Amino acid sequence: MNHLLLRYDGTDVPYDICDAHFDVVGDAFDFCIELELADQDNEDVPREVMIRLTNLERTNGTDTLHVRAQNDFCSADYYDRPNAFVYSGFHHSHVSAWVDLQSNDESELVAQIRVVTDDVDRYDERARDNSIAGTCKFARKPKSEMWGP
User: Fold this and answer.
1) Is 56 in contact with 24 (CB distance < 8 Å)?
2) Reported pTM
């Protein structure tokens, strides 16, 4: 549980988890994950990736949470609705995320994470969606102290 894998160009690239935090207010979960490339000599992918999932709500008692990015910065309720942000040298405009809660108590949470983004490196016709996935252990931290875009 100390790394997540970036699926990039048909290859799994490991990233070390530097920090992983969650907070929950009512039924709304927030998650923040800071990743660092495990192989610092790999120059084909970003060295760091930041993931922030906000205001994810549990519905119908399910343990799977889902969000698709709605990055409309001009909207008045932008920071109050469910959203997903990924930064890997640039802010990704297309992000979908799934969080499958495995265990959860007041101070710690374990979840399986899958985040799909637009290509981390290409902007031309070769660009393909990438995914970041794995199981992650989160420590509780107030969402006001988490990274935000």
Assistant:
1) no
2) 0.88
